[in-house]
Amino acid sequence: MSLPSISDYPERYRFRFCPRCAAELVVAEVFEQRRQRCPACGWVHFPLPNLAATVVIMHEGGVVLVQRDIEPDRGIWHLPIGHVEYGEDPAAAAIREGEEETGLRLAEPRFLTYTHGPSYGDPRLFYLVLSFVARSVGGALTGSDEGRNTMVVPLEQLPPLKWTSQQDAVAALRARDVPRA
Ligand SMILES: [Zn+2]
């Protein structure tokens, strides 16, 4: 399998100068891949995927959806999702994003699945999305700090969600729930 090389990486995320010593970077073969390398101090640019967490919130018999208010995909309904901060446990990130976007307080995050794929905003960037399910334990679904619209939909009536990670999260939850029936 061949991985993307530095020439496939978005221009705006490439470095021109070494972030450690400010020397101009060169492209060289490092660990069987064309990579940006610093000729002065030896620093090598290893691009990483973006890391995100999403959460299926079980609330009053349904799942909480939020309406996206920025581009791309403004207006679609989706599960709360956001970036995982450096040093942050992904489950904590899922809870944090879910609480920020819905106004609810959440508990008992459980891992569902992960999704790896290109970003919708830029297909040359990759995302690793970790999906969790959690339940609401307080707060009030009154919109959010971010001013999002929210709604609660029974799991079996959820409309098809646009993003692959969200489809995967719902499919994993439904599969998990089968033995309970
Ligand atoms: Zn350097």
Characterization of this structure:
The protein is of the alpha+beta class. It folds into 2 domains: 31 residues, no CATH class; 131 residues, Nucleoside Triphosphate Pyrophosphohydrolase (Alpha-Beta Complex), CATH 3.90.79. The chain is 15% helix and 34% strand. It is built from 2 helices and 9 strands. The strands form 2 sheets. Strands 3, 4, 5, 6, 7, 8 and 9 form a 7-stranded mixed beta sheet that branches. The longest helix has 14 residues. The protein is elongated. 26% of the residues are buried. The model has no long low-confidence stretch (mean pLDDT 91).
**What would you call the quaternary organization?**
single chain
CATH homologous superfamily placement of the largest domain: Nucleoside Triphosphate Pyrophosphohydrolase
CATH topology descriptor of the largest domain = Nucleoside Triphosphate Pyrophosphohydrolase
Number of strands: 9
The run of helices and strands is EEEEEEHEEEH
Strand content: 25-35%
Poorly predicted segments: none
Structural class: alpha+beta
Radius of gyration: 20 Å
Q: What gap, in angstroms, lies between the N and C termini?
A: 41 Å
> Percent range for helical residues?
10-25%
Number of domains: 2
Q: Under the CATH scheme, which architecture of the largest domain would be assigned?
A: Alpha-Beta Complex
Mean pLDDT across all amino acids: 91
Overall geometric form: elongated
Hetero groups = zinc ion
- Biggest β-sheet, characterized? 7 strands, mixed
